Amino acid sequence: MLPRTRNLMAIAAVGASVALATTLSAGPAGAAPATAQAKVSQGNNIPLGQGYMGAGYAQDTKGQLAVPAGDDLVMSPDASYPAGIDVSHYQGSINWSSVKSAGIQFAYIKATESTDYKDPNFNANYLNAYNAKVIRGAYHFARPDLSSGAAQATYFATHGGAWSADNLTLPGMLDLEGGCYGKSASAMQSWILDFYNTYKSKTTRDVVIYTSPSWWNSCTGGWGGMSAKSPLWVAHWTTAASPTIPSGFPFWTFWQYSDSGSVSGISGAVDRDRFSASAARLLALANNTP
């Protein structure tokens, strides 16, 4: 299944009304865009196993989904900083040597979801990205409605989310999106902290948090409790020069700026990402060095 088909199916599942030509406007750091002011759904309609980075974006941003009409409109922000992608089994077989030759320096790869689902392409993607010298990390699609943060962090850490200082492994990432899963802001804060503490106890690393301003501001109340612990990966699909970030975070570390990029070695569209600093700082994050 091509990523664009993947996205349209997810949008249909949550009943979002998508305006393809609409682009989210960027605002000052920490300020939520107009679409982020509305409450995110308390429910979740993403079937188990079908989560991926961006699966809940249409739902969480209330239909204000920015999908560039063509690759000529897909911006490459801060081109001097490392370029990245994020993938799952939806991308099919990937030629990671071609991806590396295309200038991609890092990738996050879906590993797990809940406590009983592992992405069927994870093992191949994770090994082949390593062999191609792409700095890569694993991610877990959160399902706070199904089990505790500790249980899901344990499953993640033992099914792909482990870490080692080998110049090619980034800390694991927690993907938070797709409605508030019936939890209050305080309950969601507790769930996230439970995941963080357990993951760190098993890997020594601070988990990266992926989310959108809409989701974080609604589902955690704009909580600032993770800003000193977890690097922020902000989802904001836009051609603006910088993303809007959730309340509670002073800055972003990774930015998913498009779901419709084109990269050699991957058939169809792929999410495009950017690191916020130099390649040396990306390597320092991977190896947990100053």
Question: Could you describe the 3D structure shown?
Answer:
By secondary structure, the chain is an alpha/beta fold. Helices cover 27% and strands 17% of the residues. The chain is built from eight helices and nine strands. The chain has an eight-stranded mixed beta barrel, surrounded by four helices. Strand 2 and strand 3 form a beta hairpin. Helix 5 packs parallel to helix 6. It is globular and about 45 Å long. The chain starts with a helix and ends with a helix. The N terminus is likely disordered.
Cα-based radius of gyration, to the nearest Å: 17 Å
Q: Overall pLDDT, averaged?
A: 85
Determine the number of helices (DSSP H or I, runs of at least 4 residues): 8
Largest beta sheet: strand ordering = 1-2-4-5-6-7-8-9
**Shape from CA axes?**
globular
- Helical fraction equals 25-40%
Provide the low-confidence segments as ranges: 1-5, 7-37, 63-76
How many DSSP-defined strands? 9
SSE order: HHEHEEHEHEHEHEEEH
Q: Strand content of the residues, in percent?
A: 15-25%
Distance between the termini: 41 Å
Largest sheet geometry: 8 strands, mixed, barrel
Structure class: alpha/beta
